[in-house]
Amino acid sequence: MRAAGKKESRKNPGTSRELLLAAARREFARRGFEGARVDEIAKRAGVNKQLVYHHFGNKEALYRLVLESVYTEIREQEKRLDLSNLDPEQALRRLIEFSFDYLAANRDFVALLTDENLHKGRRLKQVANLQPLHSPLIEILGQTLARGTQGGLFRPGLDPMQVYISIAGLGFFYFNNIHTLSAIFGRKFEDKTEIAARRAHVVDLMLHALRP
What we know:
Layout: H1 2-9, H2 13-35, H3 38-45, H4 50-56, H5 59-79, H6 88-105, H7 107-118, H8 130-150, H9 160-176, H10 178-185, H11 192-210
Helix pairs in contact: 2-3, 2-5, 2-7, 5-8, 6-8, 6-9, 6-11, 9-11
């Protein structure tokens, strides 16, 4: 036991913090805030439980940081789409495809948001940098829609925030309800072919909705 303790004490502080964040993301996604346990997070990370309190203070602060980190991650990836330098329709296609693919690859993101919505976003509201994090995306999307309208590609009067919510919602509903939808309709919506079909449908539906 002592040897293990010494090994943990020599662990790089930055590394242990990152390990705990990754473990907490998985644990909160799996069990929700109420069901997640600090002991299990530390066990998943392979570090001493006391490091959770050392790095983050308490479970709630760790949870808020996980929420901030998942939103930061998706916003950073959206920035790399470089929408401003693409043809408007190509830019929207890329954003729609990315949004769907991100949810397909990050089911823990879906689970975290679902749990937080069950609690009316109470802890997410306490994340300090949340709104500034999202503003640039809506601004760029608005500029892209305006370019498309000027070029006759998109209809006028489109609200970029409503467009983004529609893009996100069409994918989020599918992955958040994938098991119940499979049971209701007797189809395996988890299969790659079903996911690909849904992706194509979402892209086609959204682009048609934007056109004049």
